[in-house]
Amino acid sequence: MIRILRLLLIIALLPQVATAHQFEVDNIYYNFIDENSVEVTFYSESHTMGDYKEVQLYSGKVVIPPTVTYEGRTYKVTAIGYRAFEKCLITSVSIPSTVTSIGGNAFYQCYKLKKIVIPSSVTSIEPAFSWCEALTSIKIEKGNPVYDSRDNCNAIVETARNTLIAGCSKTKIPNTVTRIGNSAFSYCHKLSSITIPNSVTEIGDNAFAYCEDLRTVNMSNSATIIGAGAFSNCINLKKLSLPPTLKTIKAAAFSYCYDIESVTIPNTVTTIGKQAFYPSGLKYIECLAEDPDSMEVAKDAFQWQVKANSKLIVPANSVEKYKSSDQWKDFKNIVAK
Questions:
Q1: Can you tell me whether residue 308 is helix, strand or coil?
Q2: What is the rounded CA–CA span in Å between residue 115 and residue 106?
Q3: Is 322 helix (H, G, I), strand (E, B) or coil?
Q4: How many helices (H) and strands (E) does the chain have?
Q5: Residue 115 forms beta bridges with which residues?
Q6: Residue ranges of the alpha helices (H) in the chain?
Q7: In tens digits, what is the pLDDT along the chain, a chain of 337 residues?
Q8: How buried is residue 36: exposed, middle or buried, by Cβ count under 10 Å (0-12/13-18/19+)?
Q9: Which of 45, 77, 73, 82 is nearest to 63 (CA)?
Q10: What's the rounded Cα separation, in Å, for the pair 317 and 315?
Q11: Residue by residue, what is the 3-state secondary structure of 213-263?
Q12: How far is 69 from 152, CA to CA, in rounded Å?
């Protein structure tokens, strides 16, 4: 009875101790979830919120057991917690079929992790694999009711919404995917090219952010939304072809893409968000819209150097409209196509 009361007290205090470990067995660290189950977490030297020092000890091959016994009681391992393996030098991890959830940043910056197999029992995955630059193989076991790795795509797809939520440098996006999820490829430094099939209508926030070696993007011809920061800091991306269906370019979508020298903005675009192309190396911007005021363009969508030095190319009958438009008049060199 005393042990149960003690356990309930520990569980009640979980918000105060964040994800600092509560016990360790065989060099794996755990937190209690309830009286029957635990999650894998990271090691810390203190359980005091705001005053703990993290010391990551996981490395090499990690095998997570389905159950763990602590103080004479056996618990089921049902989760990999928030930041559990963050920045650890693991090369592989074996996940048991008892695990049902993987928390945010669970494998963040595990730059030696090469492959991962996620069992069919896992039904909740938060953004967990950013900056896993060595990762070349991602697989969801068959029979998972929520996720799949259809067509051997080397990615995680949320089945019901056809949304790719995590990819790697070897991912081939299936032509049944309709959305690239937020941060799906972020910090995937070894991704050099990607083909986004025409089935994709939306590219999520930060989807390809900080893919520093990304040079070629074959863009979907059906995309209507490019999310905030979607290609930000893709510093080696040289060519950009926006689809004729595009409506929204969100904030910072192409910020810090210095190697892109020209872009054509389709006449379907209605919104260009804050710092969408700021900063950039743009020299030529072609706008196909005859009415410049049909677009809502943030004042800082382009930096002043681009407005001062680049050519803004517009339909011949719209030059004066662009020169008098509050959204475009700061461009010093507006010319007819």
A1: helix
A2: 14
A3: helix
A4: 4, 26
A5: 137
A6: 2-12, 14-17, 304-309, 319-324
A7: 444 434 444 444 444 334 468 999 999 999 999 999 999 999 865 334 444 445 557 999 999 999 999 999 999 999 999 999 999 999 999 999 999 999 999 999 999 999 999 999 999 999 999 999 999 999 999 999 999 999 999 999 999 999 999 999 999 999 999 999 999 999 999 999 999 999 999 999 999 999 999 999 999 999 999 999 999 999 999 989 999 999 999 999 999 999 999 999 999 999 999 999 999 999 999 999 999 999 999 999 999 999 999 999 999 999 999 999 999 999 999 999 9
A8: exposed
A9: 77
A10: 6
A11: CCCEEECCCCCCEECCCCCCCCCCCCCCCCCCCCCEECCCCCCCECCCCEE
A12: 37
Burial class (CB in 10 A: 0-12, 13-18, 19+), 294: exposed
Helix (H, G, I), strand (E, B) or coil at 149: coil
Strands 179-180 and 163-166, bridge-based pairing:
parallel
At 220, list the tokens. 């979907």
* H or E element, residue 124: strand 124-125
Q: Name, in order, each residue with C-beta under 8 angstroms of 74's C-beta and a sequence gap of 6 or more.
A: 67, 68
